[in-house]
Amino acid sequence: MTHRIVVLGAGYAGAPAAGVLARRLHPADFEITVVNAEPDFVERIRLHQLAAGQALQRHQLADMFAGTGIRLQLGRVTAVDADRRTVTVTGDEGADRLEYDTLLYTLGSTAASHGVPGVDSYAFHVAGHSAALRLRQRLDELGENGTVLVVGGNLTAIEAATEIAESRPGLHVVLATSGELGGWLGPKARRHLLRAFDRFGIAVHEHTTIDHVEAVGAMASDGTVFPADATVWAAGFAVHPLAAASGLSVEDDGRITVDRMMRSVSHPEVYAAGDSVYTIGDNGQPLPMSCASAGFTRMQATEAIVGHLTGRRIAQTKLAYFGNCISLGQKDAILQLVDNNATSKSGSLRGRPAARVKAAVLWGTVWGAAHPTYGLPTRKRHLTTAKDHSAETVVVG
Fold first, then answer.
1. Which residues form a coiled coil (predicted)?
2. What is the pTM of this model?
């Protein structure tokens, strides 16, 4: 009987993972299905550019998976039953229930409202393709007049604020953050960041907690009113409650609890990668939700799936956190590396050289998703007859 592998989500973790599995597993023994809500691979780390008005190239999943044997099913995942090993997918033609033998859960995350009243009703965000397009439409309506309030002080907020300010110079951009803007950066990088905000004319309000959002702006907990024609919520990410409702063991924030192989501690036939997984990095700290973490966790998950199902040795891949590359518009950026304690190093790459690195990262993520099997051995492995699909684990690199 064919072993059914279902991959939920085709983002930075799911799309390349499916390609790797298709390359390494024999089609006579395995059937791979990818479920995704949209027909395109979404460059999530460029959605702030899309919202600001730039055109992004389409990357159709059907083209990316052509010739791999992967079956693509479009629709939203509306339920997962980990005990019965089923997934409910709702599409244009109604609901469909998929059965699986192995599940790879990579549904990612969305903007976290943190329970702040009005966020869901009135705020925009850039954590999804359709959400970015809604913000873009609103900015188009404003034209060259209006105020945009960005709430948040980390990477997404910084990139959204600077991209909007550069692409739409007629708009007045304001940023409100509960902490210190770029406070985690090294001193040189932070000075560069603040100079960029001054250059773009972005007004910064630090140590400001937004209490609620309205259609015409937002109010801080100290009573300060921030009038705005569009409020962009960029105050962190949250995972979908599907995992917690599925019967899988999850952390308090809803991320799936796994072992070092990205295997669910409660349901060993389920693996997770990307923003959906909670795992400790090589530095002893939880990996952050990021594109880079998606790459490391999906590599470990695919290694483990292939090893467990075919009896091959499992390489223990790195789970590293090197730092951040933050774009400040199209021609400026900061590359901030961190040490083993995830503390920013004193040095950093800034300006146009960092912008070129950022552009290379953006290109590389798409190329990697479209060519997930590049450099891998061509031999396809058969399903092992061992009942427990046990495999030896080895540490590499």
1. none
2. 0.92
